[in-house]
Amino acid sequence: MKILLHACCGPCASAALPVLAGKGDEVAMFYSNSNIDTEEEFERRLESARRLAAADGVEIVADVYDHADWLEKVAKGFENEPEKGARCRRCWEYSLRRTAEYAASRGFDAFSTSLTTSPHKPSPAVFEAGEKAGAGRFLAVDFKKNGGFLVSTRRSAELALYRQKYCGCEFSRRALRGGRDGG
After folding, report:
1. 3-state secondary structure of 110
2. At 156, is the pLDDT very low, low, confident or very high (cuts 50, 70, 90)?
3. Most buried one in 45, 61, 110, 124, CB count within 10 A?
């Protein structure tokens, strides 16, 4: 089975790749993160994901970065939603739909996401977004189970992967700073 992993970042994917390697014949990464608030941050996280892909010997493809499209299709009208609320669910579905489309166009049998490695992401809600994005082809795996988050922190240190302090969008950055815009 060919599996495409939506990689939200290198650290989270570092726990997901070994699990998926045991489930499929081939695993590749798809870095799709137009939610990230600056291109500089997008590139910094992409470089880390590329370092992981090289270490694990998997292919990585980077989706087009288009934060303006993400703001229009995901955040518009949901700017004041709390973290883990409707805006986040829309965001997960946005990235997972792009992953599902790429997977279908390249002959992958299934796709999954590294989002569930984070203890800050409610796996059932992420699974729901994955099913909406690619019904029947989404592989729901809770990568934080069995110490997955600890695996990600250990592997991130070993591979010198950049560990960000916020999910990526300007709204998660604002929430990190207690509701104050922090740029």
Report:
1. strand
2. very high
3. 45
Whole-angstrom distance, CA of residue 61 vs CA of residue 44 = 15
Write the pLDDT tens digit of every residue in 162-173: 999 888 999 988
Q: What is the pLDDT of residue 182?
A: 32
Mean pLDDT, all residues of the chain: 93
Query: Which among 130, 150, 112, 134 has a CA at the least distance from the CA of 21?
Result: 112
Q: Give me the residue spans of the domains in the chain.
A: 2-176
Residue 111 burial (10 A CB sphere; 0-12, 13-18, 19+): buried
- Domain 2-176 = CATH 3.60.15.10: no
- Phi-psi category of residue 7: left, alpha or beta, with phi > 0 → left and psi -120 to 50 → alpha: beta
Single out the residue of 71, 55, 78 nearest to residue 168, CA to CA: 71
Cβ contacts of residue 174 below 8 Å, gap of 6+?
180, 181, 182
CA distance 146 to 3: 21
Residue 104 CB coordination number (10 Å): 13
Strands (DSSP E) found in 73-174:
110-113
CA–CA gap between residue 106 and residue 177 (Å, rounded): 40
